[in-house]
Amino acid sequence: MKFLAEYLPRIRTVVITIESPKEVHVKGLEPESVELANDQGARYVIELPHRVVIDSSQNSFQSYKDYKTLRLRAVEDKGDRDLYKNRSLNFMMQVVPQRWMKRDLLGEEFQLRCKDCESCVLAKKDCVQINEMPSEFWAELMDYWHCHKPASSDGMRVDRYAKLSPLPGELLVGNSFFLISSSWPGNQLSFEGDNTACSKCSSVLGCLSTDNLYKINKWNLGLVRNGRKEVYPPEHFVISALLDLLNADGARKIKLKCQDSSQHLLLWIFAVGLQVTLPLGNRVSNCMKVYYKEEKVDESAINASKVQNIEELAVPAIAFSSFIEKLKTAHQQLPAVVKKMDNWSLGFVEYS
């Protein structure tokens, strides 16, 4: 059985769409789950993406030719009401995926280990300071600022903000990377030319940035704290970059390109911060709803993009492939009625 359970906060409704070769009906309803049964007595429990009001009048499906839908009234949380109705809040900025940020690294001892050999390459004891980057697109922001900066005769005062200059032992933290200088203490990292690598196994962990700092991608590392190892999903880099474009330019249609090949994908960011449940996993509390196209973008589409404000975003190969894999995995689980909209395919990507 294929299904999609989606929480729609603005209308306080949980909608369940089901595609099943057998007749199904509601056997039981709980605040956080619904139990279905078919005519042969087989049962299936769907975890709901949000708590619902128990109401016996809502316990029946609306049947269509190839699918059924069930609409349940959701319990309204005060936090949801404030978030979705308060126009002074920037909802997009509150849903940007953030892992291994300053607040996560200050509280306790940690080690950042090479993903290949698991040797420690960075530890809290090595850090004199830990500070956060203002944006994944720092270089672009600085270029824009220099084009529009006020006139000043004090070149020293202006140029001090032209590039990042961390102190020795200062770790700068971005959404998907760390920045350090080549004078980083210790010998766990090697700095050769445009790359930085693990000193033990020589795996490349990052590269030289435009500020002559070394950018270490989080997905090349494992974080160990409290005896537990965490990994950074590469698709989070794409999600962070997409949300940055959405926040900065209002761009919802984006041509996503792989930096290392001719592969690309046309994306339509339909919604963010959603709560859904899919068949192969439990409920997802924070995800992006994306429609996508894989066909070749021809000249007419390129010309149309100038009118439709389609941005372009190039990402590393590992992040590109991971993002596509997540989209397609979710797409395959969906009922046929919601899989496509015209020639767009639907997928979901989690970033909770």
TrEMBL record:
<dbReference type="GO" id="GO:0061630">
    <property type="term" value="F:ubiquitin protein ligase activity"/>
</dbReference>
<dbReference type="GO" id="GO:0000209">
    <property type="term" value="P:protein polyubiquitination"/>
</dbReference>
<dbReference type="GO" id="GO:0005634">
    <property type="term" value="C:nucleus"/>
</dbReference>
<dbReference type="GO" id="GO:0031624">
    <property type="term" value="F:ubiquitin conjugating enzyme binding"/>
</dbReference>
<dbReference type="InterPro" id="IPR019193">
    <property type="entry name" value="UBQ-conj_enz_E2-bd_prot"/>
</dbReference>
<dbReference type="Pfam" id="PF09814">
    <property type="entry name" value="HECT_2"/>
</dbReference>
<dbReference type="GO" id="GO:0043161">
    <property type="term" value="P:proteasome-mediated ubiquitin-dependent protein catabolic process"/>
</dbReference>
<dbReference type="GO" id="GO:0030332">
    <property type="term" value="F:cyclin binding"/>
</dbReference>
<dbReference type="GO" id="GO:0051865">
    <property type="term" value="P:protein autoubiquitination"/>
</dbReference>
<protein>
    <submittedName>
        <fullName>KLTH0D17402p</fullName>
    </submittedName>
</protein>
<dbReference type="GO" id="GO:0000151">
    <property type="term" value="C:ubiquitin ligase complex"/>
</dbReference>
<dbReference type="GO" id="GO:0006513">
    <property type="term" value="P:protein monoubiquitination"/>
</dbReference>
<dbReference type="GO" id="GO:0005829">
    <property type="term" value="C:cytosol"/>
</dbReference>
